[in-house]
Design goal:
Layout: E1 8-17, E2 20-30, E3 35-40, H1 46-53, E4 61-66, E5 69-70, H2 79-85, E6 86-89, H3 101-111, H4 117-130, H5 146-158, E7 164-168, H6 176-191, E8 195-199, H7 203-208, E9 212-217, E10 220-223
Parallel strand pairs: 3-8, 3-9, 6-7, 7-8
Antiparallel strand pairs: 1-2, 1-4, 4-5, 9-10
Helix pairs in contact: 4-5
C-alpha cells in the first residue's frame, strides 16, 4: 500500500557515542525520493547519526522512524529486516576480498532471504548495469579500481530496492573525476524514487549537485530547509 509518510522522521532525538551525547534535540524528516547531504567537521556526529539510523548505535532519547521501522528499542531480530529496506554505502567498500563481485552480491542476497537462483541472477545483472558495470561479475575486488569497487558497493546496496540509500563519505577515497561519476549514479538512483542521505566532506560535489543540506555543528543539526547554511570552514 502506498504511504506518503516520510522515509525518515526524527523527533526530539539525541545521539550518543558510548555514553557521551554528540547531537541533541534533533528534529527533521526526509521525504520519499528526497536527496539530502549531511555535512560537518570530523567528530561532529555525522557517522554517529547515520549509525543510529541503521541501528548500529542504540537510540536512547527521542524517536526515530525509518522505512517503517521504529529505531528506539528495535529488537535484534528486526535489524536485518530494517537493513533490507535501507541501502548502506560505506567509504571503505567492505567487499569480501576472496570472493568475486558476483559472489559478494550473492552473499548479501542469500543473507536477506533470496533463494530463487534465476531471480538472483537477473537481479545481480540488473544492479550491476544500473551502476554502469556490465562485465565485472567474475572479477575479484582487487582487479577493480577504487571507483569500480564503490560502484559494486552501490549495486550491493540496491539489491533489495531500498526506500533510502545511506552513504557515509562514499567518495572520500576517490579522486574528483571518479567522484563525479559516483554522484551521477546517485542522481540516477534518486530520480528513480529512492531517497538518499549522503555524508560528505566534498563541497565541490554539493556546489555541482545542489540539494538540501543537514549540517552537524556544536551538538546540533541545522537544516537548509529552515535556515541558510554556509559552505565554509575546514570539513
Amino acid at each position: 500500500m502506498f504511504s506518503s509518510d516520510p522515509v525518515v522522521r526524527i523527533q526530539d532525538a539525541s545521539i550518543f557515542q558510548d555514553y557521551h551525547s554528540v547531537l541533541t534535540d534533533i528534529n527533521f524528516n526526509i521525504e520519499k525520493g528526497e536527496f539530502t547531504f549531511l555535512i560537518g567537521r570530523t567528530g561532529s556526529g555525522k557517522s554517529s547519526l547515520l549509525k543510529t539510523l541503521y541501528a548500529d548505535l542504540p537510540l536512547r532519547l527521542g524517536d526515530i522512524s525509518i522505512a517503517g521501522f521504529t529505531i528506539r528499542g528495535i529488537k535484534t531480530h528486526q535489524v536485518p529486516l530494517l537493513r533490507r529496506k535501507i541501502g548502506i554505502v560505506f567509504q571503505d567498500f567492505q567487499l569480501f576480498p576472496d570472493r568475486t563481485v558476483g559472489e559478494n552480491l550473492q552473499f548479501v542476497m542469500k543473507a536477506t532471504g533470496w533463494s530463487d537462483s534465476a531471480k538472483m541472477k537477473g537481479k545481480l545483472a540488473e544492479v550491476l548495469m544500473q551502476v554502469g558495470l556490465g562485465s565485472v561479475e567474475k572479477k575479484m575486488p582487487h582487479q577493480l579500481s577504487g571507483g569500480e569497487q564503490q560502484r559494486v558497493v552501490i549495486a550491493r546496496a540496491l539489491l533489495n530496492e531500498p526506500l533510502i540509500l545511506i552513504a557515509d563519505e562514499p567518495t572520500g577515497n576517490l579522486d574528483p573525476e571518479v567522484s563525479y561519476g559516483i554522484m551521477k549514479i546517485f542522481q540516477q538512483i534518486n530520480k528513480s524514487g529512492t531517497a538518499i542521505l549522503m555524508a560528505t566532506h566534498d563541497y565541490s560535489l554539493i556546489k555541482k549537485y545542489p540539494a538540501r543540506i543537514l549540517k552537524c555543528e556544536d551538538g546540533k543539526v541545522f537544516d537548509s530547509n529552515k535556515e541558510t547554511i554556509e559552505l565554509t570552514g575546514d570539513y
